[in-house]
Design brief:
273 residues
Length: 273
């Protein structure tokens, strides 16, 4: 067992080098900042080569890649709108060409949403377009990415898919209607996919994160809401991006290789599904 430790990122977290994902290649969508960046860095810390997908933030994606490379890891920035199946296929093929295959897919990208309990519209004022936007950015995106990586998984004899959900699907403490509806649909999609692809040694699991502070999306969350969530959480703290990253690394590895179709509520015990 390798016991060498090294620093990976500017936040001071230290990880065990190469323990879980040596030789694996991972694609992380929406990885230029926040939770996606933490996931990319975490997977790289455990030995994976990482495709850092971004949509409109090339400089931020480049910084994530540079931080991984500076720590001795391998990464490449990959531009693609995950709603576009052609762009996604080209991205997956480029990643496979760069590093020899694809073994892990993390569907993390969040399209145009901010967790603002004050400005968030109430149901009676919403139009269908708001729901459709989130469904396209979540479910349509996952369909595209999963179809794009499947040939590469088959070429490697299997793979791991980790889809990022939200604990709001079971505990809607704030009614983010369109976002939660799309994530609920992603749960159903993920379980159907797990059942179909299990015989091909492809696992599909989910992480239902709680309130993660601070990301660009969660920044508008008021101190009052933060305190309500913190006080109701058994561990008495809010989540941080690296909490999600560590859980993804476990699900992407052989440690959780006999689990599929499952979701983990990663919210300090706020929900216990």
């Amino acid at each position: 067992m390798i016991a060498t430790l090294r620093a990976l990122n500017r936040h001071g977290h230290r990880e065990i080098d190469g323990m879980l994902l040596n030789g694996k290649v991972a694609l992380v969508t929406g990885a230029s900042r926040g939770i996606g960046a933490a996931i990319a860095r975490e997977l790289a810390a455990h030995g994976a080569a990482v495709g850092v997908n971004y949509f409109q933030s090339p400089d931020a994606a480049g910084e994530v890649v540079s931080s991984i490379q500076a720590a001795g890891g391998r990464a490449v920035a990959l531009a693609a709108d995950v709603r576009d199946p052609h762009a996604v296929r080209a991205m997956a093929d480029r990643l496979a060409e760069e590093f020899g295959g694809v073994d892990v897919l993390v569907n993390n990208a969040l399209f145009n949403y901010r967790f603002d309990p004050v400005a968030n519209p109430r149901f009676e004022t919403m139009e269908w377009g708001g729901f459709q936007e989130q469904i396209d950015g979540t479910v349509r995106a996952a369909v595209n990415t999963c179809q794009a990586v499947l040939p590469h998984f088959r070429a490697r004899g299997g793979g791991r898919i980790v889809n990022i959900l939200t604990n709001l699907i079971t505990h809607p403490v704030v009614q983010y209607h369109a976002y939660t509806t799309a994530k609920s649909a992603l749960l159903g999609f993920s379980r159907n996919l797990a059942a179909e692809l299990g015989p091909e040694n492809v696992t599909v699991n989910m992480i239902a994160g709680g309130l993660i502070m601070t990301t660009a999306a969660s920044e508008p969350t008021t101190p009052e809401v933060q305190e309500i969530v913190r006080g109701a959480t058994p561990l008495r703290r809010l989540g941080e991006p690296h909490d999600i990253g560590r859980a993804v690394a476990a699900l992407a590895s052989d440690l959780m290789g006999f689990a599929t179709g499952q979701y983990v509520a990663l919210d300090g015990g706020l929900t216990m599904p």
